[in-house]
Amino acid sequence: MKNKLKEILIKLKDYKLVLFFLLVIGGAFYWYELRPIFIKKQCSWFTYTTQTPSIPAFNGVTKEEAVKKFEKIQRDYKNLCGNNFNKLSDGLCAYMEIDSHSSVEQLQESPRPAIPAGPVEKVIRNASKIEYDSCLRHKGI
After folding, report:
1. What is the pTM of this model?
2. How do the domains of the chain map onto residue ranges?
3. Which of 22, 71, 101, 115 could staple 55 via S-S, CB 3.0–4.6 A?
């Protein structure tokens, strides 16, 4: 019985050595051959999602509200840009001058319903050279 046990232990030692070398060779094959292939495959395309944003409902602008807005624009223009033009207010005055020429009819807006967000779309495209190189560096190749 002791002899049989010794024979089994000797065979087991031989198998441990073979198993160790197989693990080392397998690990090296994975690290230097398979891993780079998987990483290059992952980095060759770029995936992102897009979605059309939702637009909230708008109650519209009545004629009275448009008249008030029109009067406020004219009042602000006169207060800021009356006779005093300085470098800070030049651009704003020019913008307000354009806005002050709008009519009450242009300021009036009709109501519109809410527009829900569009569906989420997954977009897959080929990675550019910069994206590909950046991905490879990030993943360690």
Report:
1. 0.44
2. 1-54+129-141, 61-108
3. 115
